[in-house]
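Researcher: Let's try something more involved. This one mixes different molecule types, so please make sure each is placed in the same coordinate frame as the others.
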Amino acid sequence: MAHAIEFQNVTKTFQGSLRNAVDHINFTAEEGEFITILGSSGCGKTTLLKMINRLYEPDTGKIILFGEDISSMNPVKLRRRIGYVIQQIGLFPHMTVGSNIAMVPNLLKWEKEKTDARVDQLLTMAGLAPEEYRNRYPAQLSGGQQQRVGLARALAADPKIMLLDEPFGAIDSITRARLQEELLTLHRGMKKTFLFVTHDIEEAFKLGTRVMIMNEGHILQFDTPEQIILHPADGFVSSLVESAREKERFWEKFK
Amino acid sequence: MIDYMAKHYDDLIRAALEHLQIVLITLLLSLALAAFFTILCVYSKTASRMIPGLLSMIYSIPSLAMFALLIPLTGLGRTTAILVLVIYNQYLLLQNFLAGLNGIDKSISEAAMGMGVTPMQALVKIKLPLSRKAFIAGIRIAMVATVSIATIAASINAGGLGTILFDGLRTMNPAKIIWGSLLSALLALLIDGLLRFAEKRLDHSSTSCSLP
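Model: All components are placed in one shared frame. Result:
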């Protein structure tokens, strides 16, 4: 069985930049995995993600999804098969919540009944009662609700791969914790591959079945949370784990 | 002055209607051409760099000079006038259209592109509806400019309110000068007011659906 995602020696340099944003990256991800990509800003994690739906093109190397080289696929068709969620959410403000979610099904020319049923199903799944939220506009929702709609919109056409670029980055910590739990539940219920970019170490270790730690365009370690904590690959990773422990100790003091 | 209106109200009405006709024909042609340029600029980076600059250069040519330049090609009359007005409008329309399109939140465009919306679909389904206010504003500015420049077009026999104004200047008839200017000013104000009203209406109807 082919890997869900496979990177073969992928490099990407941006014009005017001295070093590679993503530097000779190799990795594979299997169907159903929840992979979190952890790194500070500028480490190449968003670049890596955006090459999967061809918002960026790699300079060298190959990206293969389910055995198919994406460079030979039509980028528009490819994107319709991949869910994409971004931190700024990017809901279309002039469309209702329902029309936002129905965007990709409409592009794929689904039957109206099928689309409507799917919208209601997704709203329910996102914890938003369809009758109440279907006809609202994005501005009438809270930040957390907007991102629930963002997630529902990305899931609309039942993509096998979901790319999430710091989706909870701008959401208050209480709502974020709840959304994280819900995302985990959601992921467990479906056989989809999630790639989730974050700079929050707790988020990365809480959500990921495997965590990819990146720095300066390289993958430092790509393993299960337990393995990374028990056997950090290098000084950078151990200092990262240590910084999380530090924070933990800070809270322990007040128990 | 009132006497002049009482005697020549039919001339005034005819001139005003002629003027309005020039403005409306110009508007239709301008919109078609501006739509073409806008799409060109959306698709091509080179075009979006070149075209606005070129149009602003043309816009800086005085209208009388432009009429004079075109007379050998298209002759005296309304065709030349409308041609010049359409060319001038391109700068005003494109400037506002592009400002409206570029003013859309980057995250909205990114989300759309990431979902597999094609550039044309993004333009029609997302960008145009979101920038309709800037579009109406552009049309308003272009129409008011058209009303005023169309007055000068009377100097090349294009008809309209300018005819009365220029007649007045030639024959030193203050009533004609005043009525010619007054009516063209009124026409400009009327169009401006109507389109401002439309802009406001759009503003109200979109407050419920635009992000705070």
